[in-house]
Specification:
Blueprint (H helix, E strand, L loop, with lengths): L5 E10 L6 H19 L3 E9 L3 H9 L4 H18 L6 E4 L3 H16 L3 E11 L4 E3 L17 E10 L5 H9 L8 E3 L1 H13 L4 E2 L1 E2 L7 E2 L2 E6 L1 H6 L1 H4 L15 H4 L4 E5 L3 H15 L6 E5 L2 E3 L14 H8 L1 H10 L7 E3 L1 H31 L2 E2 L11 H16 L2 H22 L1 H5 L4 H28 L1 H10 L6 H10 L9 E2 L11
Parallel strand pairs: 1-2, 1-12, 2-3, 7-13, 12-13, 14-15
Antiparallel strand pairs: 4-5, 4-6, 6-8, 9-11, 10-11, 16-17
The structure holds ligand ME8.
Ligand ME8 binds next to strand 1, helix 1, helix 7 and strand 12.
Length: 519
């Protein structure tokens, strides 16, 4: 298993034009699972998320609610924080682009670009989609409309500062394609990398990085009549949050250069271009290191349609929590389809998976096993005479596959392995029928009974450790039933040196309350 001492993971910072929905929740839960796993493995993790608050889209949203824009942003940012608290998101920093330290960093960054002669002032006319917060080219339009928002872009003609993006095309291509290049960064999954290199090969235009008539944003330090383009403002969050531009380090344990570059930016594929081309080019122009990895997960529809207020199919995280609870919602989001692929989400499908994976499989296993230990063994588990863990080889293999999934963001692999372990135990119990052995007084039957329950509780211990990042509260509850004296993190780290787990002899196992009531 590869390990970093420090691990810096980010989500996009979300627009505050509305409260979070399950699209934002999906990315944030994924980053949380990675962060929790890394912490359990002993890494010093920094998990950054936040909100993107400037620009025309936010001004429009505030005006639509007849609210002062700053108050409006405060309200929605608080809504995001509250949603993440309810979902058990363990972020370390929640950045807002209206934070003064961020605004200072943006001034320093754009001022630096100007000093390095990376900017030109010139006239531009284009079609701007406010919902995308970007200019659309003729080829991107569909029947004159933005293909994503089905709205007519606004024709804008103004004098702006342009960043020499085209100058970086060859260098970016080389960096992305040559895996041995010292500045190489990974783009995952592979098809996203192909998408980026394919587009880069077609050419690259310079981009306007300021707006002449945008009152809600950060004025350029060298020309306060112009406001920093909202995407440039937003991307800088990844470095302003870890102290870029600060003289010393105040709020973090390490200096800027200790945290930056990020180990992974987790994003949705909709914002791939900004993260894989514009952001690296801006960093190159500023002489800063590039992120190590960009992972773009897929986009999902809800009941087969794009999620939108007009269609009326927007699902909020609170709705999921109301039905399934926070832990199961986290699990179900990541179990829906492979991370990196597109997919569809529906409450019916969630209910089906909840019952199949959680209520009938894992939940059933925990309740029947702890019940049997109490009923047949008086709640006390002893190591059966002559017990070896040789028949748990398969479990060890599944455990390492699951752990690998957590490191490579293949959550589906982790979930599949956990379910296999649980199915393995349920089948083992069905086959061996411990209830029959329990009614026998023959010593060999007693021994066999002890062995079966010992084996199963041991596998349950493996499952509990793997559930820790996915379902932190539930996993802690199960851990509490197993009479385990050590912290989960210590046990996981111990497994790095010596794979395999054991249980103390005479462990007192408590009967589990229902963890996943059937839906
Ligand atoms: O783009 N499926 O913010 P945003 C999967 N502020 N993921 C989804 C999704 C869906 N249907 N809908 C949203 C912005 N997401 C900028 C980012 S970063 C410097 C600035 C998730 O509020 C996914 O992570 O539009 C996507 O990339 C993000 O929300 C877009 O959030």
């Amino acid at each position: 298993m590869s390990l970093n001492k420090r691990f810096f993971v980010t989500t996009p910072i979300y627009y505050v034009n509305d409260l979070p929905h399950i699209g934002h929740t999906y990315t944030t839960v994924a980053a949380d699972v990675v962060s929790r796993w890394r912490r359990l493995m002993g890494d010093d993790v920094l998990f950054l998320t936040g909100t993107d608050e400037h620009g025309a889209k936010i001004l429009e949203a505030a005006a639509g609610k007849k609210k002062d824009v700053r108050e409006y942003c405060d309200e929605i940012a608080a809504g995001f924080k509250n949603a993440w608290k309810n979902m058990g998101i363990s972020y370390d920093i929640f950045i807002r682009t209206t934070d003064l330290l961020h605004e200072d960093a943006v001034r320093k960054f754009t001022g630096g670009l100007n000093e390095k002669k990376e900017l030109n002032f010139s006239k531009y006319e284009g079609r701007y989609c406010i919902q995308c917060e970007k200019y659309l080219t003729e080829t991107e339009l569909s029947d004159g409309l933005c293909p994503d928002h089905k709205t007519k872009p606004v024709v804008q003609s103004e004098e702006n500062y342009f960043f020499n993006l085209s100058k970086y095309r060859d260098k970016l291509l080389e960096i992305i394609q040559d895996t041995c290049h010292p500045q190489h960064f990974e783009i995952l999954p592979a098809e996203r990398k192909n998408e980026i290199t394919g587009k880069l090969k077609k050419g690259l235009d310079d981009i306007s990085i300021s707006r002449a008539e945008m009152p809600w944003g950060i004025p350029l330090p060298f020309d306060p009549g112009q406001t920093v383009y909202v995407w440039v403002d937003a991307l800088i969050n990844y470095i302003s949050a870890v102290g870029y531009g600060l003289p010393g380090q105040k709020n973090l344990n390490y200096a800027f250069s200790d945290w930056w570059p990020a180990d992974v930016h987790i994003i949705g594929k909709d914002i791939l271009w900004f993260h894989c081309v514009i952001w690296p080019a801006l960093l190159l122009a500023s002489g800063l290191p590039l992120p190590k990895k960009i992972f773009a997960h897929g986009y999902f529809t809800v009941n087969g349609q794009k999620m939108s207020k007009t269609v009326g199919n927007v699902i909020r995280p609170a709705e999921l929590i109301d039905i399934f609870g926070a832990d199961a919602s986290r699990f179900l989001l990541l179990a829906a389809f492979p991370f990196g692929s597109d997919g569809d989400i529906s409450l019916d499908d969630f209910r089906e998976k909840y019952n199949a994976y959680l209520a009938d499989n894992i939940g059933n296993l925990i309740s029947r096993t702890t019940n049997m230990v109490e009923k047949y063994l008086g709640g006390r588990l002893t190591v059966p005479a002559g017990w070896t863990d040789s028949n748990l080889q398969e479990i060890r293999q599944l455990f390492s596959e699951a752990a690998e999934g957590l490191e490579s963001l293949s959550f589906e692999k982790t979930i599949r392995s956990i379910i296999s372990m649980s199915t393995f135990c349920n089948q083992y119990i069905d086959r061996e029928e411990p209830w029959r052995l329990a009614s026998s007084v023959a010593p060999s039957d007693r021994q066999k009974l002890q062995k079966i329950l010992y084996d199963v509780i041991l596998v349950l211990k493996h499952i509990t450790l793997l559930l820790a990042p996915l379902m932190p509260e539930t996993s802690a509850k199960i851990w509490g039933l197993l009479d385990e004296k050590e912290e989960m993190a210590a046990v996981i780290r111990g497994m790095r040196d010596k794979p395999g787990l054991s249980l103390p002899s005479g462990a007192e196992i408590k009967k589990s309350p229902p963890l996943f009531p059937k839906q």
